[in-house]
């Protein structure tokens, strides 16, 4: 026990005396605050806003556009379109002349067979296609639609579906509010934060062990501590630093946001309860224990960091699945079957369950069950990896591959 | 000169003819694309709930309804059920007979306003099928030709004034393709740059370099390594292209989306004069990093700092797409690290002025030459200082 504490203390001291640790600790909230302050300052000053929008979008072209109607469809331009937005030309040649003379910025050709074919040519010197800046071309196609409908604006609009739909959910548990983008994005953001936290802290362990193995410090260490003491000390030490770093980041961003005059207000549609924080702590710690042990096992077997890094992808894959599915599954159906299964499966639970909890509506027993399953997995994996963490594995410089890793994990080596 | 090619061939040979290169380098991108496509189909199939949809019509629009056209693949048909009263629809909803019901008020035809009631979530394929059902009935008394045109809308074909390039709104793939190509290019660029950095650090660490230096000059050694590793990256890109281009060529007659793909000659120009120099520059900078640091992990952190600006255009995709000719876009097209992705993205969206291509490629070529010089110098200085980190100040100092 004493030696475990010694390893733990040493890990913490080595880590926090590194300049790069402090750089990351202070730098990340600092950069965030600077960006926030900068954006705030720009938003406050009108001239700065104008300059920025000039740089972002370039000078606005206020010239009208032209059209050549060979089909005879356009009889009138609806009154809601500002005057001189579209100029009519009898043929393509005159429209081209006007374009060359700079009177218009672009022009449309409505061919004689438009009703049959539906093709509308849009001549633009900069060839900027409709998916990007479609504002003017969208309006022109709308003008064409209205004229096709005999000038009846309501009829033309209704032809593409209802104008306004009231979406009323009769469910007992409120569904995510589609009109509040932030409420919809919260599960996504939580997924990313938890993924980064767990993988970030666990990777520290991987680089730590493979480095010590590479420069043979580990051989010296093993003369006085047992592999299990070494592993426990390292996992705990790096875990404490990782957790401390996270809490510091959250704390400073909270304080800095308050100092800069922006209160940390989430819209009333989202309320993350206290239990969310408690569960967050539980799932972070257990998730960290599982993944840090897996990474430690990897570090113990791989001869150097480079080979170990290649295998991390496979190990963190279960944690990535919720990340891939976050926009489709967790944002839209946080309590559907796929989301529930992923949140109960121990290897994806740390991320998936937190995403679901942030969306709300999770049955009370589910986080409990997921927590128990995850804790059992953590115990199992720590034991397996400790078995793997034997002197022989740590000392040998044998070639590494994933097969060896999984065989060692189940104790077949 | 012969020794340079020796070094280059050795680098190429030891990376390309390995199992790792085949698995990680070649199959990764096609595999990721396959997984993505698979996930998209999974999500679509999850979305299709074929439980019937109910409606209560007080407006008279659906009194004698025509049925809606069948949905396009991969959406599945959702049956529509009419209810006389809201109460009947509600009880059908409660018993799970329908997934949701629409309520069309008396004034729907003058207000265009309706409501939809559901218990769980209500997904879009069913919505769009109901809207097309409404449209079909709204247009039942209109001339069929005009009705079809009203529903389908216009296909806008944007054309340059000289007619040399045109993009149809249906072929959005042409807009996205250069961006995908740009991303693949950057991945290849950094993975080969990574090989180079690791190779330099490793050889420095295990002192192989001292032996090599007895027979090759530092400049020959560095140039050989850069050429060899660039060739590795190009091999990767060419093979990826084969993976991507072959299916497109084979399927372009069967899948309409692919038939509109066209590659403008200026895209090839961009690849030759902008992408290639940037590739060499990044390789050289990576080699320079390898020469200045004392261990690979330290180098990794510096690589992170270089790769960050490269992804800026990707983060600003929305902004660049809506304003491909803004000062910001032009600035990013000229700056060495952001040029490749920005230029490719803009190429799909607008006509790049010749002066911009010329200026950007000139800047890239100059930067590439500068980076090679820097790498050679850093290497010469760093070689003699084992275990000690070389300071960038020393690299730029006058000897």
How would you describe this protein?
The complex is a heterodimer of chains A (413) and B (399). With 413 residues, chain A is mainly alpha-helical. Chain A folds into two domains: 65-158, D-Maltodextrin-Binding Protein, domain 2 (3-Layer(aba) Sandwich), CATH 3.40.190; 181-259 and 272-409, no CATH class. Chain A contains 18 helices and five strands. Chain A has helices spanning 2-16, 19-44, 46-57, 92-100, 114-117, 135-148, 153-158, 181-214, 217-221, 227-259, 274-301, 305-324, 326-330, 337-344, 349-359, 365-388, 391-395, 402-409; strands at residues 65-69, 86-89, 107-110, 119-123, 164-169. Chain A has a four-stranded mixed sheet with strand order 2-1-3-4, with helices on both faces. In chain A, helix 1 crosses helix 10, helix 8 (181-214) packs antiparallel against helix 12 and helix 11 (274-301) packs antiparallel against helix 12 (305-324). The longest helix of chain A is centred in the middle third of the chain and has 34 residues, at 181-214. The radius of gyration of chain A is 31 Å and the shape is elongated. Residues 263-269 of chain A have low confidence and may be disordered. Chain B is α/β, with parallel strands linked by helices and 399 residues long. Chain B has two domains: 2-39 and 166-396, no CATH class; 49-153, D-Maltodextrin-Binding Protein, domain 2 (3-Layer(aba) Sandwich), CATH 3.40.190. Chain B has helices at 2-16, 19-26, 28-47, 86-94, 108-111, 124-138, 144-152, 173-205, 208-212, 218-251, 256-259, 265-292, 296-310, 312-315, 317-322, 327-334, 339-349, 354-383, 392-396; strands at residues 53-57, 80-83, 100-104, 113-118, 155-159, 166-168. A four-stranded mixed sheet of chain B has the order 2-1-3-4. Chain B has a two-stranded antiparallel ribbon with strand order 5-6. In chain B, a hairpin with a 6-residue loop joins strand 5 and strand 6. In chain B, helix 8 packs antiparallel against helix 10 (218-251), helix 8 packs parallel to helix 12 and helix 10 (218-251) packs antiparallel against helix 12. Chain B is elongated, with a radius of gyration of 30 Å. Chains A and B meet through helix 3, helix 5, strand 4, helix 6 and helix 7 of A and helix 3, helix 5, strand 4, helix 6 and helix 7 of B.
């Amino acid at each position: 026990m004493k030696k475990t504490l010694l390893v733990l203390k040493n890990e913490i001291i080595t880590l926090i005396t590194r300049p790069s640790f402090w750089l990351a600790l202070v730098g990340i909230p600092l950069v965030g605050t600077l960006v926030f302050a900068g954006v705030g300052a720009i938003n406050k000053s009108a001239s700065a806003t104008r300059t920025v929008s000039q740089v972002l979008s370039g000078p606005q072209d206020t010239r009208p556009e032209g059209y050549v109607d060979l089909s005879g469809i356009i009889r009138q331009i609806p009154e809601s379109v500002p005057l001189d937005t579209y100029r009519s030309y009898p043929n393509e040649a005159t429209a081209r002349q006007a374009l060359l003379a700079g009177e218009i910025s672009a022009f449309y050709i409505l061919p004689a067979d438009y009703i049959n074919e539906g093709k509308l040519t849009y001549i633009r010197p900069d060839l900027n296609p409709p998916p990007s800046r479609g504002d003017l071309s969208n309006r022109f196609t709308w003008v064409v639609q209205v004229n096709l409908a005999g000038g009846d604006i309501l009829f033309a609009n209704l032809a593409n579906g209802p104008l306004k739909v009231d979406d009323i959910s009769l469910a007992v548990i409120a569904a995510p509010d589609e009109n509040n983008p932030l409420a919809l994005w919260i599960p996504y953001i939580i997924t990313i934060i938890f993924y980064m936290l767990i993988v970030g802290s666990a990777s520290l362990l991987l680089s730590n062990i493979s480095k010590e193995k590479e420069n043979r410090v580990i051989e010296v260490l093993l003369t006085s501590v047992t592999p299990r003491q070494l592993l426990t000390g390292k996992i705990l030490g790096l875990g404490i630093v990782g957790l401390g770093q996270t809490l510091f980041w959250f704390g400073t961003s909270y304080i800095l946001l308050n100092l800069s005059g922006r209160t940390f207000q989430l819209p009333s549609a989202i309320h993350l309860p206290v239990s969310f924080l408690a569960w967050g702590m539980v799932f972070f710690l257990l998730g960290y224990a599982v993944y840090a042990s897996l990474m430690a096992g990897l570090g113990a077997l791989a001869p150097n960091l480079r080979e170990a890094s290649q295998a991390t992808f496979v190990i963190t894959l279960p944690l990535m699945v919720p990340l891939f599915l976050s926009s489709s599954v967790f944002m839209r159906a946080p309590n559907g079957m796929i989301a529930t299964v992923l949140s109960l499966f121990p290897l994806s639970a740390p991320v998936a369950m937190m995403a679901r909890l942030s969306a709300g509506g999770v049955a009370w027993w589910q986080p409990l069950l997921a927590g128990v399953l995850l804790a059992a997995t953590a115990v199992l994996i720590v034991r397996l990896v400790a078995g793997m963490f034997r002197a022989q594995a740590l000392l040998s410089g044998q070639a590494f591959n994933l097969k060896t890793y999984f065989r060692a994990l189940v104790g077949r080596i | 000169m012969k020794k340079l090619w020796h070094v280059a061939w050795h680098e190429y040979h030891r990376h390309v003819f390995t199992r790792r290169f085949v698995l990680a380098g070649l199959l990764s991108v096609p595999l990721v694309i396959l997984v993505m496509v698979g996930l998209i189909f999974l999500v679509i199939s999850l979305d299709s709930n074929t439980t019937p949809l109910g409606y209560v019509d007080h407006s008279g629009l659906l009194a004698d309804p025509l049925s809606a056209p069948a949905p396009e693949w991969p959406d599945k048909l959702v049956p529509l059920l009419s209810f006389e009263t809201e109460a009947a629809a509600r009880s059908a909803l409660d018993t799970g007979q329908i997934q949701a019901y629409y309520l069309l008020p008396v004034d729907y035809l003058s207000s265009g306003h309706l409501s939809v009631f559901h218990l769980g979530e209500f997904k879009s394929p069913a919505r769009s099928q109901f809207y097309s059902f409404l449209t079909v009935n709204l247009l039942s008394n209109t001339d069929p030709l005009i009705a079809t045109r009203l529903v389908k809308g216009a296909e806008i074909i944007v054309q340059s004034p000289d007619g040399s390039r045109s993009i149809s709104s249906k072929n959005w793939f042409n807009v996205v393709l250069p961006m995908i190509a740009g991303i693949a290019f950057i991945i290849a660029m950094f993975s080969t740059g990574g090989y180079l950095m690791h190779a330099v650090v490793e050889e420095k660490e295990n002192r192989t370099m001292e032996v090599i230096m007895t027979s090759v000059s530092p400049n020959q050694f560095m140039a050989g390594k850069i050429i060899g590793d660039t060739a590795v990256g190009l091999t990767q890109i060419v093979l990826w292209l084969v993976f991507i281009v072959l299916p497109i060529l084979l399927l372009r007659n069967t899948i309409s989306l692919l038939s509109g793909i066209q590659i403008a000659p200026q895209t090839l120009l961009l690849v030759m004069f902008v992408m290639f120099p940037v590739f060499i520059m990044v390789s050289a900078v990576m080699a320079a990093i390898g020469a200045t640091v004392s261990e690979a992990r330290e180098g990794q952190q510096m690589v992170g700092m270089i790769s960050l600006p490269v992804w800026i255009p990707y983060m600003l995709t929305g902004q660049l797409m809506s304003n491909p000719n803004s000062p910001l876009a032009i600035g990013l097209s000229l700056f060495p690290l952001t040029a490749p992705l920005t230029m490719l993205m803009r190429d799909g969206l607008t006509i790049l002025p010749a002066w911009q291509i010329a200026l950007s490629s000139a800047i890239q070529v100059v930067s590439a030459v500068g980076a090679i010089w820097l790498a050679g110098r850093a290497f010469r200085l760093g070689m003699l200082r084992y275990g000690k980190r070389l300071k960038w100040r020393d690299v730029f100092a006058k000897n």
